[in-house]
Amino acid sequence: MSILVDKSTRLLVQGITGREGSFHTEQMIAYGTHVVAGVTPGKGGQWFRANSKRVPVFDTVKKAAEATGANTSIIFVPARFAVDAVYEAADAGLPLIVCLTEHIAVQDMISVRAYLDTKNTRLVGPNCPGLLTPGEAKVGIIPGYIATPGNVGLVSRSGTLTYEVMDSLTRRGIGQSTCVGIGGDPINGTSFIDVLELFEEDPQTEQVILIGEIGGNAEEQAAAYIAQQMTKRVTAFIAGQTAPPGRRMGHAGAIVEGKSGTAEGKIAALRTAGVQVAEHPDQIVDMIA
Amino acid sequence: MNLHEYQAKRLFAEHGVPIPEGDVASTPAEAREIARELGGKVVVKAQVLTGGRGKAGGIKLANSPDEAEEKAAKILGMSIKGFTVRKVLVDEQAPGIEREVYLAVLIDRAKRLPMIMASAAGGIDIEEVAEATPEKIFKVHVNPALGVRYYQTTYLAAEMDLPRELWRDFHKVVAGLYACFKANDASLTEINPLVITSENRLLALDGKMSVDDNALYRQSRLAEMRDVDEETPAEREARQSGISFIQLDGNIGCMVNGAGLAMTTMDVIKLFGGEPANFLDIGGGARADQVATALRLILSDPKVEAVLVNIFGGITRGDEVAMGIIEALSQLDTNVPMVVRLAGTNAAEGREILKEANMETATTLSEAAQKAVAAAGARN
Predict the structure, then answer these.
(1) Residue B143 at interface with chain A, using a CB cutoff of 8 Å
(2) What is the rounded distance in angstroms from the CA atom of residue B80 to the CA atom of residue B97?
(3) Count of CB atoms within 10 A of residue B164's CB?
(4) Are both A93 and A227 inside the same structural domain?
(5) Pair (B103, B146) in one structural domain
(6) Of B101, B143, B326, B370, which is least packed with CB atoms within 10 Å of its CB?
(7) Number of independent structural domains in chain A
(8) Does A87 share its domain with A204?
(9) The pTM is what?
(10) Which segments in chain B show pLDDT lower than 70?
(11) Do B344 and A163 touch (CB under 8 A)?
(12) pLDDT of B219-256, one tens digit each?
């Protein structure tokens, strides 16, 4: 077991013929992910070739899903068109959409969320590295070689910081059940709590690492959930302890506004909830080993 | 992107929010002329993108054009929290202020909806109100499909005990502020204070507005309002090169890929007793020339006594980063020590390229940070 993606994932790639889409489709196929279809409007009928595999390209998600039985979509579409791509995948009835695109306007995300609430679709992202279940499926851009199968669930708001932690886990021989990047935007599809719930229910996952950062109060809400609902051990790290207030630290969501969203507040909330909080990423592995 | 008060208030006014008559001046003579047109009794307000202007002496009343010129001369050129005042807003004085309230539209991340926040305790820092008397703050959420409804503004007006004869006008102000928020892809529109004048009218005396950078592609008018004087030249160059760069006060420059890892690198430097000189994210898949630009920007800060390069390659390739470092060093005359930690994609190739450059390397982030802190310390 694992969460969200595994060997039964039948992946559809929106934007498969683009620069990022084609490169990462090859990488995902090389990892063993079942990529069953691609969508690029205007290029329906073509084939996407990667190594020895051929993936059919369709004009619309609906057509692609009907023809191939795709059950998950990944979006590699530029920001201006990504919102439309999310609506299209949700409208086609796909249960899981993973959107990697960065720089989607926040008011667009408000509308997307309101629409998704009327559908049985889960969105992961945007502005995220996607997710990876070691040995089963890679849906996104997390480098495959830093993952190893095991029992630690990982959920993170950051991309490369996730790689850093996965890599140190793997080098110490500690495997992962599933690694999920939920993205660094102020409004996203899947929250920490959504993923914690899934890890709590997943028999393979024995303990969880949560990687947060400054801005918003998602970590505080996660802390409240952990205190009330979680039986599995959680270890956390919060990035941005030295970030100055009022400045956006790269991610649209990473900003200390007034007195809210500080690392101190998040660390205190997590510790109160019984979560062990590491001072630096290398320490996480010592804490869970 | 944050807008100046005069820009924010003009945008509010386009959506029917009443604002004082006024105009913006860059010289004392211009301030005098505006004051003359407004009849003499004005307030001269520094236009800088930071709070606390009043306490810093950046807001002054003037009762004649002469006085407005004199006050503007004092305020222009002043430094407020490191920002130089280049413009002043000259507004007519409000006839008499009966009450001050707070009103804002912002995004509630947890509810994933726009939210209207109002408080009868206006004119002071809302953070202080939220801390000392949270019960004085009232909130309603806006469903974007429905917009601001009358019952919602009635609730806010009644809770704040606004005079009943102003409830209709108050609804217009709230609906206007929300319309402005929506039309301009704002992440914040704020009036503090919204006053009730002695003539029993509502008036937005101050205005603050932040626009979502990710929406500027469809808000070209707002993109042109960016005040480039508020960025350091290095920050401006970084923005134009697609590098995320924020200058800080420390002495250890950092170059990292990814925002979360960049923040973490700063934190770890601090943990081992150093002070980061900047936040810098070269982004995903940076090429050698971007790496070279990043290094040049870091070294343009004379406070920098050591540089820590921390790259965990996913899309970004270690050899590209190494070539960028070599390229930058071939153009720069620097003796600032550097510690490089390369991991991930093509890290081995990258380390090979850097071998000849005789550079300190590290395998973990903690080790890299300790070496950088030691290198910076050794120079003192």
Answers:
(1) yes
(2) 27
(3) 10
(4) no
(5) yes
(6) B143
(7) 2
(8) no
(9) 0.92
(10) 379-380
(11) yes
(12) 999 989 988 777 788 888 898 888 999 999 999 999 99
